[in-house]
Amino acid sequence: MASVADYITLLKPRVMSLVVFTAFVGMMMAPDGMHPVTALTALLCIAVGAGAAGALNMWYDADIDAAMVRTVRRPVPAGKIAPAEALVFGLALSVGSVGMFGLIVNWLAAALLAFTIFFYVVIYTMWLKRSTPQSIVIGGAAGAFPPMIGWAAATGGIGLEALILFLIIFFWTPPHFWALSLYRIEDFARAGVPVLPVVSGVIETRRQIFFYTLILAPIGVMPWVLGHAGPVYGFVSLAGGALMLVLTLRVKALTEGGAAEQAARQLFAFSILYLFLLFAVLLIEGNPAHLGFRTVLNVQKGQE
C-alpha cells in the first residue's frame, strides 16, 4: 500500500520547492503589497498546482520512468501507486488549486497557474518530450512561469520585472538540463527519450549549452541594469554568469572520458546554485531603488 511519503514523492517536492521559491520572489518584487494570509494562500495554491503537475507527469511517464535508473523507484513505476490513482490525485489537486487561487487571490494568477499545469502536462509531457530534442527548450517555459504567477497574484497584472525573471529561468533551463543529460545519456537512450545528446550527439549538445549560456549571462544581469536590484545583485549576477560561461567552456572543450563527465556534473551542480543565488539576492535586495522611487512619488502626491 502507498504511504504518505509515496504521495509526497508523487508531487515532486524538489521541483515544487523551486517553483514556490521563484514565485515568492516574483511576489515580493511586485510593487503592490499583499495581506499575509492572501500571500500564504497564493503560495499554497502555487505549491499544490506544481505538485499536481508533477503527479500528472509521473502518471503519464510511468513507462519512461520504469526504464531509467534515475526514476525507476518513483511510486507509479515501482507499483506503490496505481496509474489511475495518480491521475485522479493530480486532476483533483489541479482543479482545487486553480479554483481556490481564483476565488481567494485573483483570476489572472489562477489562469496563469492553470495554463502552466496544462503546458507542463499536455504540451511538454504528452507531446514534446517524446517527439523532439528541443522539448526542454519549449517545455522549459512551464518552469519559468512561477515568478509571473507570483507577480500577478500581488498586482493583478504582469510587469517587466516578472518578464525578466521568466527569461532568466527560460534560458537557464537548457544548459541546466542538457548538462544532466550528458552524463545520463545511456539512461535517456534506454528509455527512448529523444534528448539532444541522444539525437544530435554530445558535440552538438555542448555547442547548444554554450549558446544558451551566452544568452543567459547578460539576461541574468538585467534586473540590476534596469534598476530593479542593487549592487550586491549586480556583483552576484556578473560573477555567477562569468563562472557559468567558464564551466560551459570547460564542458565544450572536454569531449571524452571521466573529465568530460565531471565537467558536466560540475556545470549541472553550479547551475542550481547560480539560479538560487540570483533569486535569493533578489528576495533580499530586489527593487530597492524602484520601491524608493514609488515611495517618493507617493509622498509628493500626498503633499500636493
TrEMBL record:
PROSITE patterns: UBIA. Its EC number is 2.5.1.141. The keyword Cell membrane applies. Gene3D superfamilies: UbiA prenyltransferase. Its main location: membrane. InterPro entries: Protohaem_IX_farnesylTrfase, UbiA_prenyltransferase, UbiA_prenylTrfase_CS, UbiA_sf. The keyword Transmembrane applies. Belongs to the UbiA prenyltransferase family. Protoheme IX farnesyltransferase subfamily. Converts heme B (protoheme IX) to heme O by substitution of the vinyl group on carbon 2 of heme B porphyrin ring with a hydroxyethyl farnesyl side group. NCBIfam families: cyoE_ctaB, PRK04375.1-2. This is Protoheme IX farnesyltransferase. The gene is ctaB.
